[in-house]
What we know:
By secondary structure, the chain is α/β, with parallel strands linked by helices. Helices cover about 45% and strands about 15% of the residues. The protein has helices at about 10-20, 20-30, 35-50, 55-65, 80-95, 110-120, 135-145, 165-180, 195-210, 230-240, 255-265, 300-315, and strands at about 70-75, 100-105, 125-130, 150, 160-165, 185-190, 220-225, 250, 275-280, 295, 325, 330. Helix 2 crosses helix 3. Keywords: DNA-binding, Transcription, Transcription regulation.
Amino acid sequence: MDTRENKRPTIDDVAQMAGVSTATVSRVLNQPGAVREALRKNVLGAVARLGYVPHAGARALMLHRTGTVGAVFPTVDNAIFAQAIDALQRRLALSEVHLLIATSGYDPGSETRQAVNLVTRGVDALALCGFSQHPDLLHFLQKRGLPCVHVMVHQPDCALLSVGFDNAAATARATRYLIDLGHRRIAMLAGITQFNDRAAQRLAGVRQALASIGLELPPARVVERPYGLSEAREGLRQLMAHRPAPTAIVCGNDVLAFGALLESRCMGLEVPKDLSIVGFDDLEMASHLQPALTTMRVPTETMWSTAADRLLATLAGETPPRSTEVEVALIVRESTGPARRLPPAAP
């Protein structure tokens, strides 16, 4: 039996078919911009015909890079992170860098293990969500000198590389909008704040806005739930069970707001006549619901593309800005309206 057909093609085979040296083949594959277009097409044609795949380990040893970036997301079961992965991957691909992803389930221990696994597999840099990593992971990355960008947060006084926005300021803005509509009984349907600095900051923003007019956010008007529709519906029922019931609810993200809208309808509440609801993220579905959702718009694609740019710049030996802020915007739609006038007190 002739085994030559099963033999994997080598760089020598590519060079022989293209009529060039192995060094030229290597330049075409690793530094395509340094090779004339005609020569590059010739070599790449030979690569395609032979089905040649460069040895990743040898390439990494030669370049001292693997051409990969790792990212640890809390979950992929959320449209905002799906958009983030897409934006990050597309931007890295323009520089022929590949993305490897892992998920942590909002668990800092799992995030540490997944990040270390990615580093063990040779990623050249990491993208992480927020600043709430375990100190051991931050120490590990610092000792290795591995480029790392923290996304979805903005703290200009922090020494870590970051791209994002002020989560507290964003929900404070949404809360002030409700205050301007006359609402005073405002509640918060938050994500789980433990191990999630973005969720904690969004809750803090609601407190800050209410404090600015001399009001508090009572414990009964704060419910934390995982980011899911059924959990959000349960949270809405819990908030509305307390008396006096809130007239407006700020939600930690759009998924929680979607669940709140669904449950409001089941409870016979008319939005926004009986209850105003504000989301966070501006997912595509937000504008298609009835009523359409008022929400804070996060420029997800811009934010994660910029995060990729910061990592690529660092890998190229440049010194990018330590902190980059992206602008969020309040998008007013149909799910918010003036507070219902209360009947006058009995004489």
